[in-house]
Amino acid sequence: MDEIRQKYQAIIAKINPKEKRELVRKIEGQSLDSNFWKDPKMASEKMKEMADYSSELSKIESLKKTIDEGNEVLARQIISDFENYLFFGDEFDKHNAILSIHSGQGGVEAMDWVNMLFRMYSRFIEKKGWKFEIIEQTPGEEAGLKSITIKVRGSFSYGTLKHEAGVHRLVRLSPFNANNLRQTSFALVEAIPEIEKNEKVNISEDDIEWEFYRASSHGGQNVQKVSSAVRLKHKPTGIIVTAQAERSQGQNRENALAILRGKLWLKELEERKAQEKELKGGHKTPGWGNQIRSYVLHPYKMVKDLRTNFETSKVDEVMDGELDQFISEELKLLS
Q: Count of H helices and E strands in the chain?
């Protein structure tokens, strides 16, 4: 129990329950003011913030109780959960995530692979109790998706999903090949945080080139009568963003700007990291060459993470959204 008590003290120092209690009391006080509810979005975010702090405090109290009772097994489980949680200390880790999946080499097979990954992440999001909405999707010519972008709403969704960014490789017998040959396909997963206006990322309207066009309706059937879809180009960086899932041009505009803010922040972060790595010696550019995970369905079944070397033969479970172990191993590697 001595080791458990030491870890408990380290968690207390990191979380600072006294400060969290003061923040809860502060938000509770603000919520009693009628003006607080005049801005529903701000009020909702504040109440969610208070709920997160209250949850942390409740877990701390539960951990203390299990230690006092000498329940070593339960105490270790709670500490393990806390340690994973405490890994999410980077800027914007608490934020919602914007997740994109793009097809790579493999033609129709790769587009089907994008669809499979989208299903996998949809199930993962569902298991986490999060929600998502589609911002943009481009269907494949014969099957699957060329690309899809979703906004994921949930506590620490960016801190969790950012570790999924990179190239995912699939090896299987192709259902699109008459000879049923083995096929290798690739898809690129991108994850950026949803960043609100005035949150350290400033965008000048003069730097944006807008284009508005008509998008296919939900289900890809008729063409809408109004130009609700948007495409923007950020002239200084050349970044291009499209958003078309909403029927409102204004909402698609906001979604496109949210994606741009996330991409600009990530670009700045990667440039900063590149400079640091170059000073230490060597830098690996993010992109198609950086495989992070391999999914083999034939001649054997195996999913292996190439960063942590964690692997499992439970391919069906992984494709059904069981990703926690992969993410946990990645967090341990980074700790």
A: 9, 11
Separation CA 188–CA 147 (nearest Å): 9
Q: Please, what's the b/e burial string for 205-230 (b: 16 or more CB within 10 A of its CB; e: otherwise)?
A: eeebeeeeeebeeeeeeeeeeeebbb
Residue 137 near residue 115, CB atoms below 8 Å:
no
Identify the bridge partners of residue 300 per DSSP, sorted by sequence position.
none
Tokens encoding 184: 């290798």
DSSP reduced 3-state for 284:
coil
Residue 15 CB coordination number (10 Å):
18
Q: What is the 3-state secondary structure (H, E, C) of 31-74?
A: HCCHHHHHCHHHHHHHHHHHHHHHHHHHHHHHHHHHHHCCCHHH
pTM equals 0.74
Among the listed residues 94, 86, 98, the one whose alpha carbon sits nearest the alpha carbon of residue 45: 94
Biggest CA-to-CA distance, the chain = 70
Angstrom distances, CA of residue 125 to CA of 144, 148, 152, 155, 323: 20, 15, 8, 11, 10
Question: pLDDT (tens digit, 0 to 9) for every residue of the chain, 335 residues total?
Answer: 888 888 888 888 878 899 999 999 999 999 999 899 998 888 888 898 898 889 889 988 998 899 988 888 888 888 877 776 777 777 788 889 999 999 998 789 999 999 999 999 999 999 998 999 999 999 988 889 999 999 999 888 999 999 999 999 999 998 887 777 888 999 999 999 998 776 678 888 899 999 998 876 444 444 445 678 999 999 999 999 999 877 788 889 999 999 999 999 998 888 887 777 666 554 444 456 679 999 999 889 999 999 999 999 999 999 999 999 999 888 877 76
Cα dihedral sign for 53, 26, 198, 35?
positive
Distance CA 157, CA 163 (A): 11
Q: Strand 291-296 relative to strand 166-173: parallel, antiparallel, unpaired?
A: parallel
109, 74, 288, 312: which is closest to 189 by C-alpha? 288
Q: Which tokens belong to 257?
A: 């700007």
Grouping H, G, I as helix, E, B as strand and the rest as coil, residue 179 is: coil
Q: What are the CA-CA distances from residue 70 to residues 60, 76, 77 (Å)?
A: 15, 11, 13
Structure tokens at 166: 């990179």
